[in-house]
Amino acid sequence: MTYNCRFSPEFEKDLQKIKKKDKVLFERICKKIEEILESPEGYKPLRYKLKGLRRVHIGSIVIIFQITGDVVEFLVAEHHDRAYKR
């Protein structure tokens, strides 16, 4: 199945911050987004208040996303200490 990609405004803002600070990490995140779009169900589902969302770690950064039909919406790209507090 082919998935479409959507970025939340928060995710876009997070990516811009990461791009300014660490271009190598930004490139790793871009590659991981492509991998997620190929098979989003393979990533860890979250529980409790975050049920329905999934996550993947890239170094100390956590990407949180959700799958709705054929759309993968990326919500947060933040350091793991802050990612779950939003």
Can you give a write-up of this model?
This protein has helices spanning 9-21, 23-38, 80-83, and strands at residues 4-7, 44-45, 53-58, 61-68, 71-79. A 5-stranded mixed β-sheet has the order 1-5-4-3-2. The chain has a single domain, classed as RelE-like (YaeB-like fold, 2-Layer Sandwich). The N and C termini lie far apart (30 Å). It is built from 3 helices and 5 strands. The mean pLDDT is 94.
Short description:
With 86 residues, this protein is an alpha+beta fold. The chain has helices at 9-21, 23-38, 80-83; strands spanning 4-7, 44-45, 53-58, 61-68, 71-79. The protein is built from three helices and five strands; from the N terminus they run βααββββα.
Topology:
Elements: E1 4-7, H1 9-21, H2 23-38, E2 44-45, E3 53-58, E4 61-68, E5 71-79, H3 80-83
Parallel strand pairs: 1-5
Antiparallel strand pairs: 2-3, 3-4, 4-5
Order of helices and strands: EHHEEEEH
**Inertia-based shape:** globular
CA-atom Rg in angstroms: 12 Å
Low-confidence sequence ranges: none
The total strand number stands at: 5
Which CATH architecture would you pick? 2-Layer Sandwich
CATH topology: YaeB-like fold
Give the mean pLDDT: 94
- Please count the helical segments: 3
CATH superfamily: RelE-like
Profile the largest sheet.
5 strands, mixed
Task: Describe this protein with a few key phrases.
single chain, 86 residues, alpha+beta, YaeB-like fold, five-stranded mixed beta sheet, 34% strand, globular
